[in-house]
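A.,

Following up on our hallway conversation. Structure tokens first:
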């Protein structure tokens, strides 16, 4: 099994690319979707988050906008939240990998793959990217988003240029959806037939040192 880590900064089109992998029959673990499930109505983390951040939950689960406002510029509060969320997501990710262990290729869609060290536990890293002006246009077009909030979010993320430098694969989403889909299709075909080997058409060498695939089961075990 090849475990491909998928990441990208806000507004780069990561979710769109993840959906394309799914459309080509590749199992995708969506870390954000798992967080939504854990924090949604009846979610396993709702009571713990309410205890740690009183007033941030209700009948619909966690008020993500309110919770986000509470932790956006408070490192200590963010650390408390992550101590609740990360172990639960790790357990779900381990279950996903066990469930699909016989598949040739799986994708872990993890926004903070570099920031939280997840790149060490995958076979290769795919970064979804677009020019800075495209990113800002997309994000600032979202309801409730401001330039100040975007800057605060970006300050907590590894810069796109650094992600690109460390990537094994890069998908450029600045073109049409069809252009992006062609890149994804080519990469899926390459990984399924060649494995994690470098081909001129879809891969560039990486300066990042990653563990060999044989170490990954230990990484799974350590996350349980």
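Then the amino acids I'd put at each of the 224 positions:
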């Amino acid at each position: 099994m090849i475990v491909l880590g998928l990441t990208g900064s806000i507004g780069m089109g990561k979710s769109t690319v993840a959906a394309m992998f799914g459309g080509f029959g590749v199992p995708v673990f969506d870390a954000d979707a798992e967080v939504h499930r854990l924090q949604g109505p009846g979610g396993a983390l709702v009571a713990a988050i309410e205890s740690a951040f009183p007033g941030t939950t209700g009948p619909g689960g966690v008020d993500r906008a309110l919770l986000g406002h509470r932790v956006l510029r408070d490192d200590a509060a963010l650390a408390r939240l992550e101590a609740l969320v990360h172990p639960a997501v790790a357990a779900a990710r381990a279950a996903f990998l066990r469930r699909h262990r016989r598949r040739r290729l799986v994708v872990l869609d993890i926004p903070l793959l570099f920031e939280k060290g997840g790149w060490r536990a995958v076979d290769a890293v795919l970064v979804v990217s677009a020019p800075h002006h495209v990113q800002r246009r997309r994000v600032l077009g979202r309801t409730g988003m401001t330039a100040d909030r975007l800057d605060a979010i970006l300050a907590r993320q590894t810069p796109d240029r650094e992600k690109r430098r460390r990537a094994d694969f890069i998908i450029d989403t600045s073109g049409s959806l069809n252009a992006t889909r062609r890149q994804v299709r080519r990469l899926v075909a390459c990984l399924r037939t060649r494995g994690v080997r470098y081909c001129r058409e879809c891969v560039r060498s990486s300066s990042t040192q990653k563990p060999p695939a044989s170490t990954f089961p230990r990484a799974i075990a350590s996350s349980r």
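The radius of gyration is 18 Å. Curious whether your intuition agrees with the design.

B.
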